[in-house]
What we know:
Number of strands: 85
Structural class: mainly beta
CATH architecture of the domain at 2-18 and 893-980: Sandwich
Number of helices: 3
Radius of gyration: 39 Å
Low-confidence stretches: 4-18, 891-904
Helix content: under 10%
Oligomer: single chain
Shape: elongated
Distance between the termini: 26 Å
Amino acid sequence: MKNILFLFIIFFNSLLFAQNINSTLLETNFGGDSEPDHLTKIGNKIYFSASVYNDRELYVKDDLTSKPHLVKDINTNYGSISSSSFFKELNGTLLFTATSNSIGNSYQQLWRSDGTENGTYLLKIINPNYDTNISNPIILGNKMFFTTNVNNSSDLWVTDGTEAGTKIVKKINSTGDSSATYPFIFNNEIYFLANDGITGMELWKSNGTENGTVLVFDFYTGSSNGIILKPIVYNNNIYFIGKQSANMQGLWKYDGTQTQLVKNFININYFDPVILQNKIIFCINTTSGFQLWSSDGTVTNTNPLFTTPPYSSVITYSKPLRVFNNKLYFEATDSSFNTSNWISEGTASSTVSLSSTIPVLSNAAIVGNSSGNNYLIFRSNNNNDHYISDGTISGTKLISDITLTSGYTGYGLNVLEYNDSLILNGKNKKNGIELFKYNFSTNLSTILDDVHHKMSSDINASVSLNNKLIYFGNGFNEGTELFTSDGTASNTKLLKDMNVGEYSTVYTGDNNYFFKNGSRAFFRCTVGTGYEPCVTDGTEAGTYLIKDLSPFNQGSLNEDPYFMTLDGNNVLFGADDGANNTTGASRLWRTDGTQSGTYKIHDVQIVGGNGYKSSTLNGKVYFTGYDTNNVYSIWVTDGTTAGTYIFKTFYDLQGNNIIPKIINTLGNQFVIIVNDVTSQFNFYQKMLTSDGISSANITQIATFAKSSQSSGGIIGETIVYNNKLYFYAFNYTGTYPTDAYKLYSTDGTITGTNVFSSLISSCCVVDIKFNICGSKLYILKDKLYVTDGINQPVALDNGSHAFKNFNCVNDNLFFLNNQYQDYKIWTSNGTVSGTYPFNLYANGHLIGNNESIYKLASTNDKLFYLANFYNTDVLKESGGEVYIVDINAQNLGSEDVVQNSIKGSGFIVFPNPTADIINIQSKDGNRIDDVKIYDLSGKLFVTALSNNYNLQLNINDLIKGVYVMVIRTGNTVVTKKIIKK
């Protein structure tokens, strides 16, 4: 107990210096197409290529449940793998072709991989002058034979998976193109076609050595080609289309010693053989088109499959003959050039249209088969629907929960059989083109791996409704829409796709925002013909377009302020409905959030733009507007047509109409500023107040001299704090600009309008920001200041930093500060010592100094931020996303208190605080022996034994409070403070 108590003392002393904060990823945009291709199963591993930001590289899954990872960044400049890349297993390893910028050769070459970075390396530069294209690979023993073109000659090559064992078998044509093609296995040797430049294209064989590679026979004596079409092995014979003279051409067979003519054909230049139910089925060209024949190797039984076929010609070049489950599948066209699918068991009577057997496939084409050939994949010719079939009606299913993507961007459909599942490269709305796991018995697909989900979300604008954050965010297929979050991952989601499809609902400019009125927030949206009024109460049903006001594409809400409060249920706004064929006018409208309750109340044109505000007093709204004579005034409205009129028009000393600007509401009066000029052309700005009751009861409370017509007066935003209005102003006193800028305050009276502070007096930059948090007023002008409104502002930092995004949560100020080059989260409680940056943790991982945070947003007690941690491996795959900050644990240190300290004794504990589940994760590869949890009195509540690197505990039974977790690994003890919510 003494040792534990000693640890407690050390631990809580360390908390005094802790400045750590935890956060959790709330990912909403899982978009980004990795377009997985080349799926290859070797043992339990799945190798494939994937494209992340157009950088296609080799990835691997160690088993079906493991997360895929990049094997090696082979080409650091751009993707190493293309659609033509070769993938093949040899002796338990992957052979593939790829380009690399690290080998002194920019062409595709032969590589090998065992699924590890060190075990992935260049096997051989086969073609130093062009891409190495490997064709016709076949495995014999522990070697792979293939053909490839080097120096304009296609030859037979061999590899055993080593560099020395990867070589040309024999250069058959010493002076030209060997044209080696169609290798196959017969009598445990490799047979193939080639041209030695003397005998023409003929049959050759090889035992894998140069001396053992010889011509089988010169079938057409002399230099003429004897065999040019692909042979097939059937019943221990080689069958081929051979030619010995102009009139001696046809189907021959070779048993290894002699040849025999099976059937004589004339002018045959196509041969597409398959084996079906102990017969050769082949397609040859005739004067009537491509026709099917069958043969058992005898002259008598080598005949056309049909004498009067129901079609005109078999489609062969693009759609080869396919044998599946002892049936032949092929496409054919009739005399009217209509194409359809047919199936056959090798006889005329068994040949029927596919539609008569499986009607749903009546207008579908075969686009692929599974790796084990247990399923065929069909695509409808009418649309992009895909079917998977085992060849029966009941076993033919429409894949409806994902879209299969045959033929996208050059990459093909992959259907990999893995145990009792199928691994597909498909597409859904949420994740894009990724890896999916398909269950044939249930006809359901689930996302297996989202390799590329770096597409980013956003917090373009936000509002707190019912303690939920409502914000403009980005989905993958929705564009910019309304999202909602209660701070949990499961409830951070799209609120509503208002503008269905990829078109955005909201404008994403800096001046778009939510206008909160009671329990609802109004905003302008692009659901109608342009910018129109929309509203949300934080629910899907309560989020909608109120009314499409304008038939013109430019929309109706074009002037800011877009909304003004009339009462708790109604708002006013300026809109252009295109009446009288005019556009650009912002007339006065009102809405209660319903279509019938939304109507124009007056043709006064509202003046908007930088700094123009409205004021609501005594059930009336005051704003700047102008009439048909272009006279600018303060207008007033009670929300009716009759109750809308000019309240006050202002003129300068020269008799010119002045545009008045309401800048804020102070108690029971609103504050106006107007510009004026004397007859000597001395420019100045007047500050006025009005109670809104009588236009005659307007009081001038201050005058600010200007050095010119365009500079001077009130600069930037204003704020009301403790019944006073605070503002920054330029007042020219003849020593421009040294003493011209000051921070002022006013209580709405002449005597109560004074310089509040001369400490904040920097020149020329107009940006000043205010924020009230707790009982303090924070001021940002180059530095961050704080005041209680009585004492002079105090600078909370000494540097000239770039602050932004101030949020008050639980009476603490949170903001972003570009301290050096990247924005970090800072906090302040209004004291110098209490103003500091956090060490930020996300999902239990420390975020480094080379990362950036872009935006902060908050509800009453929750802080959110937007960031893209592209230098943090465990988070970089998510792109720019929203995170929730654990405010309750902001003073919780994540520092370890270690006895018998050794290198690598750290552990991450998250989430913290927690209501139930808490995870302990080793940072440095040390196993956890046991974990104990004590209360602050030292009473033991939880003991858990372990022999692993990670441990998960359920502390749901603990009462709310602070506890100490003691983690033991070997003779090292680490303690951490945890909070049970």
